[in-house]
Amino acid sequence: MNDQDYMRLALEEAWKGCGFVNPNPMVGAVIVKNGRVIGRGAHERYGGPHAERNAIAHCTENLQDATLYVTLTPCGHFGKTPPCTDVVLENGIRRVVIGSHDPNPLVAEKSIEILRQHGVEVTTGILQQECDALNDAFFHFIRTHRPYVVMKYAMTMDGKAATASGKSKWITGELARERVHLDRKRYTAIMTGIGTVLADDPLLTCRIPGGRNPIRIVCDTRLRIPLTAKIVKTAEKTKTIIVTGSGDDKKRLLLNQAGCEVLTVTIENGRIDLKALVRRLGEMNIDSILLEGGPQLNSAALKSGIVNKIQAYVAPKLFGGQQAKTPVGGTGVDSPEAAWRLSAPVMTKLGEDILLESEVVSCSQEL
Question: Active site located where (predicted)?
Fold first, then answer.
């Protein structure tokens, strides 16, 4: 096995922290000595030991002259746990192989410099693209202090998100829906609009056994959400934020009593100011949002410039109908030149369906 093979094992370990380490990154580590894997570990929970320390703790033999493979630069500062560079040096590890560079200025090159000054050989950039993709939300949050927003929708091959009568269950198959629930576990929050709540009365929870429910955020300008909505009735069990510009104190009190947090933000042109909202959510340490909105919220999110990534689930079906909804509503752009530009899509096959994922390269308005 070579460096890439061992880093792939470290990536597998990193996924054990999915949904439980936010706003920290997912990190995996593997320790190799004389061609044998002698230790594995992951950062499993926020505030818990880092991947390097867990991997070392699981070793049953001397680590002198071993090689540590880690998906992200080991920390060299005191945070919630002591520096990982210390434990590397204490155990005589000879070589450290790193996937991603940590964007945190407290870490960055400082950790690598510490290791090299003590005679440790450091190799960087192994499977960097894969390691970076693991923590796109973390990197964005560290740099901007705002949540990474993933706009997700399902559509037919003729671009319809629902039939002309408004029915949309189910466009995609089970494998695609399982992937959606994995992302509900992965990202800290899920956001939708009041239109979706009134039409579908969703729970917006994660149905993966042993998973973690995301924080539920509902954009509700005029505070129309019914007290009988499933989201409201389960708010004491799953953190729920209702975002509004309404001054209806009686309704706010009733929602508070049901367990909801009511967050007031500025209103712009009769709608919630989404740029102001993501700034507030970032201040609340919400690092990532899965946007499962309807056509109007999706359009508003794109126009406000808050969307970082698009996930389009495409099913081999045709709905037809001029009045059938498409994933993005609003007035759209005036010309093809004004389109939102996306990166080349990464395609994943999920049964009969495909998932296309692209980063938003340019948008109509920057944050």
Answer: 52
